[in-house]
Specification:
single chain, 392 residues, alpha/beta, Aminopeptidase, Alpha-Beta Plaits, 2 domains, 8-stranded mixed β-sheet, 9 helices
């Protein structure tokens, strides 16, 4: 088959699955599931892959699904990885035609589209099995939002024998019809931590008889901000955020304990490690200075997402064939995280972004988040073209 004939066939196959991919995304959007609860989503992915002729394993590292399709010729194993979980967000009720039916849970980061695009690519590559060699593995991963899904799947040998990895992420602040591909780091590390500030509770009218953990926690929060403003180079982006504070039961009662929850993000592994050490040390020292104590706990974490330059170049060529070279951009690394990083440590690969909105689109993880569904076939075709290049 000539290159032109293969190209036409590929385009026809992507067009054939377009409506099905959109419907899968809408179905998943209406039925979102939180981390480690992705039973329905996993069942849908497993059923679809089984119908396409894949051998399917379910319950991999929890609710994960691994599906393999072997071609007629020996060759490498390529993994397509898609995350499945949603967020504990109440979706905005603004009359949008596709809305979560599970109040308080929402696909506010595009994972519904990631599953749909990966299933679309699986359908196309299944119909074109005579055009590639080796093994295609589709990995549907739970619990990305809490950085808790990739490691259990890897422990369950989901990445065994994998030679290359491709992952895809819809990005609402990137113009629809564009693709972002980066050599090296594209996402930073993402670590969640907890800090328990312990004091000595008592009467709110007699604070001198207590050790107030509320005051100590407030000083800890303020001091942690200096880790970025005074200890980290402005040329090395990093973030320390305290997103949760909980303590006290009444206005006139000084509590015994205040709980803090936060996150650290960094683009370099050594900065990640330094900041985590310093968060623990600063919390302990500041609390101690105010007559309290602080207990630091690592909750979950994942290293920076680092693309292999050769695989990234291959994806860039595939994207250019879909959207044109002028629409393939090199993004600045982002201080968001994704535990696809752990799969990329198992085998060379590329995690890339598909534009799904514009610069004014509501941000990811917000109640108003949405995607332009015209991005879905762009993602499918880019995945397929890159896969065919790898599975030659």
């Amino acid at each position: 088959m000539t290159a032109a004939a293969l190209d036409d066939r590929l385009s026809d196959e992507v067009e054939r699955v377009r409506d099905d991919v959109i419907e899968i995304r809408r179905d998943l959007h209406r039925n979102p599931e939180l981390s480690h609860q992705e039973q329905r989503t996993a069942a849908l992915a497993a059923q679809r892959c089984g119908e396409l002729g894949f051998s399917v394993r379910t319950g991999v590292g929890g609710t994960g699904v691994v599906a393999d399709l072997v071609s007629e010729r020996p060759g490498p194993m390529l993994m397509l990885r898609a995350d499945m979980d949603a967020l504990p967000v109440l979706e905005r009720d603004d009359g949008r035609p596709v809305r979560s039916q599970n109040d308080g849970v929402m696909h506010a980061c595009g994972h519904d589209g990631h599953v749909a695009m990966t299933l679309g690519a699986a359908a196309v590559l299944s119909s074109m099995r005579d055009a590639w060699s080796g093994t295609l593995r589709c990995c549907f991963q739970p619990a990305e939002e809490i950085a808790g899904g990739a490691a259990p799947m890897i422990d369950a040998e989901a990445a065994r024998d994998v030679d290359r990895v491709l992952g895809i992420h819809l990005w609402a602040q990137l113009d629809c019809g564009s693709v972002a591909v980066s050599d090296g780091v594209i996402f930073g590390s993402a670590d969640l931590f907890g800090i328990s500030v312990h004091g000595r509770g008592g009467h709110g009218g007699m604070p001198h008889t207590t050790a107030d953990p509320v005051i100590a926690a407030a000083h800890v929060v303020t001091a942690l901000q200096t880790l970025i403003s005074r200890e980290t180079s402005p040329f090395n982006p990093a973030v320390v955020t305290i997103g949760r504070i909980s303590g006290g039961t009444a206005a006139n009662v000084i509590a015994d304990t205040v709980e803090l929850g936060g996150t650290v993000r960094a683009l370099e592994q050594h900065e990640r490690e330094r900041l985590l050490r310093r968060v623990a040390a600063v919390a302990s020292d500041v609390a101690k200075a105010l007559g309290c104590s602080a207990e630091y706990t690592d909750v979950a974490g994942t290293p920076p997402v680092v693309n292999d330059p050769e695989v990234a170049a291959l994806v860039r060529r595939a994207a250019a064939a879909v959207v044109g070279e002028e629409r393939v951009i090199t993004p600045q690394p982002l201080t968001v995280g994704d535990d696809v990083a752990l799969f990329l440590q198992q085998a060379p690969g590329c995690y890339f972004l598909v534009g799904a909105g514009n610069a004014e689109a509501p941000p990811h993880h917000s109640a108003a988040f949405d995607i332009d569904e015209k991005a879905l076939p762009v993602g499918v075709e880019t995945l397929v073209r890159a896969a065919l290049d790898i599975l030659r």
